[in-house]
């Protein structure tokens, strides 16, 4: 098969590494790709939002199967564009991707179908939102309704912070039109867990669990980022939690979308919080998480193309997902200053250390090839990932491997997976 992967980050590099292991695949293309993906695939200079160019390329090259990585093109309808040309594509259609594209939609869906989540109110007026805050208890959570690069969530500890947050989202438009509408919801305390699920519209097959670290600094301090590291599995995601979520969250979400005439095919990412009252849904995403994918896919035994084709063909019930009985930790190497201002173009050294090691991976996120070698080209630069017998072993190896790589203004958190040591 010829496979096209749409996207150019660490998630897409992890997907490409899994696709490269498939016995069914002869050639991989990636649009636009990055310097790391270029070692596995032919990179094509097409932006993820150029649907006409992307489908024309797929037709010209006779691509057998396309995998969509990022959220923006999914929410904008790239799957519909591919299907309109009769092309096989993995991902939810536009009417289903709204589950990530609108926080208000997903909250209303959960409320209607009794899927456990935080209590909330939705506002399109900053004035009305501030009025509501006058009678609220704190801390409280503000969420931009639309896509905001994974950063449109503000946890506000005081009324003053929350009022400032409303201004940031709705009046200053920090995330553009994503903040035209906001969701204000109760703050839930507990451990967070991420579970990615393969879906074929009716059947849902959850993958192994993971946990992301969103904050920029150690101890979960600093600004929200796209993710500074992950570990898998979560020791807090017990068999009891798993069986509850399979029935009342994952399958219930699938059934709800189907009942709404929005059958969901692709990856449903469920962000959970384990509260004293039981698991609740914090958010949905309509695609593989980044950097969750970097710890989940290296542990999967299945041929990823077989699973994705089963999703597209409505035959997911015919197979079982299998994962190695091991663990993975990913530490993101970022550019100092991320998620705000940072410099690009710094030469990266030490990547060759990963080429001959089976349990170590370096997934490229913000990199590009230049005359002087591979250079930094983004806030999150690389995802250094290691497999181990257990989480402590994987964590030790991942941090050891971060020492192999150097670039000026390299920054990372030093406590990814530290919760493991306390579990």
Which structural class fits the helix and strand makeup?
A: alpha+beta
Which CATH C-level class of the largest domain is it? Alpha Beta
| Topology-level CATH name of the largest domain | D-amino Acid Aminotransferase, Chain A, domain 1
For the report, how would you describe the main beta sheet?
Answer: 9 strands, antiparallel
**N-to-C CA distance:** 44 Å
Shape: globular
InterPro entries: ATP-grasp, ATP_grasp_subdomain_1, PreATP-grasp_dom_sf, PRibGlycinamid_synth_ATP-grasp, PRibGlycinamide_synth, PRibGlycinamide_synth_C-dom, PRibGlycinamide_synth_C_sf, PRibGlycinamide_synth_CS
Keywords: ATP-binding, Ligase, Manganese, Metal-binding, Nucleotide-binding, Purine biosynthesis
Pfam families: GARS_A, GARS_C, GARS_N
Pathway: Purine metabolism; IMP biosynthesis via de novo pathway; N(1)-(5-phospho-D-ribosyl)glycinamide from 5-phospho-alpha-D-ribose 1-diphosphate: step 2/2
Key attributes of the depicted protein:
13 helices; 28% strand; 29% helix; D-amino Acid Aminotransferase, Chain A, domain 1; Dna Ligase, domain 1; Rossmann fold; five-stranded parallel beta sheet; 423 residues; alpha+beta
Give the topology, please.
Layout: E1 2-7, H1 10-20, E2 27-32, E3 42-43, H2 51-60, E4 65-68, H3 71-76, H4 78-84, E5 89-90, H5 94-101, H6 103-112, E6 120-123, H7 126-133, E7 140-144, E8 153-156, H8 159-171, E9 182-186, E10 191-200, E11 204-212, E12 215-217, E13 221-224, E14 229-232, H9 239-259, E15 265-275, E16 278-285, H10 293-296, H11 304-312, E17 327-335, E18 360-364, E19 367-370, E20 373-376, E21 380-388, H12 391-402, E22 410-411, H13 418-422
Parallel strand pairs: 1-2, 1-4, 2-3, 4-5
Antiparallel strand pairs: 6-9, 7-8, 7-9, 10-11, 10-15, 11-14, 12-13, 14-17, 15-16, 17-21, 17-22, 18-21, 19-20
């Amino acid at each position: 098969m010829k496979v096209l992967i749409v996207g150019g980050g660490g998630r897409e590099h992890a997907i490409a590494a899994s696709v490269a292991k498939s016995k069914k695949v002869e050639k991989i293309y990636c649009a636009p790709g990055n310097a790391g993906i270029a070692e596995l695939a032919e990179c094509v200079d097409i932006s993820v939002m150029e649907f006409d160019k992307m489908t024309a390329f797929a037709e010209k090259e006779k691509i057998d199967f396309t995998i969509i990585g990022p959220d923006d093109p999914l929410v904008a309808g790239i799957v519909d564009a591919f299907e309109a040309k009769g092309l096989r594509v993995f991902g939810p259609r536009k009417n289903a991707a709204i589950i990530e594209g609108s926080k208000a939609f997903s909250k209303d869906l959960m409320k209607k179908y009794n899927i456990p989540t935080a209590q909330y109110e939705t506002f399109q007026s900053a004035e009305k939102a501030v009025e509501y805050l006058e009678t609220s208890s704190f801390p409280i959570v503000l969420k931009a309704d639309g896509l905001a690069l994974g950063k449109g969530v503000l946890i506000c500890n005081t009324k003053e912070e929350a009022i400032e947050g409303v201004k940031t989202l709705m009046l200053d438009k920090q995330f553009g039109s994503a903040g035209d509408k906001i969701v204000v919801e109760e703050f839930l305390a507990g451990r967070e867990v991420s579970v990615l699920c393969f879906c074929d519209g009716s059947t849902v097959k959850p993958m192994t669990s993971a946990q992301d670290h969103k904050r920029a600094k150690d101890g979960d301090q600093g600004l929200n980022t796209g993710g500074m590291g992950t570990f898998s599995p979560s020791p807090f995601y017990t068999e009891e939690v798993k069986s509850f979520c399979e029935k009342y969250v994952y399958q219930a979400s699938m059934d709800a979308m189907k009942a709404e005439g929005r059958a969901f095919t692709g990856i449903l990412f469920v962000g959970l919080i384990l509260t004293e009252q039981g698991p609740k849904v914090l958010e949905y995403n309509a695609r593989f998480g980044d950097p969750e994918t970097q710890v989940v896919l290296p542990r999967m035994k299945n041929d990823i193309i077989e699973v994705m084709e089963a999703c597209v063909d409505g035959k997911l019930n015919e197979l079982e997902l299998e994962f190695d009985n091991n663990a993975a930790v990913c530490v993101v190497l970022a550019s100092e200053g991320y998620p705000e201002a940072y410099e690009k173009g710094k030469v990266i050294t030490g990547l060759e250390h990963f080429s001959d090691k089976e349990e170590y991976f370096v997934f490229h996120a913000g990199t590009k090839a230049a005359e002087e070698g591979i250079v930094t080209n983004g806030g999150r630069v690389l995802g250094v990932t290691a497999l181990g017998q257990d989480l402590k072993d994987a964590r030790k190896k991942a941090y050891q491997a971060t020492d192999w790589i150097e670039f000026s203004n390299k920054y990372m958190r030093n406590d990814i997976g530290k919760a493991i040591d306390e579990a």
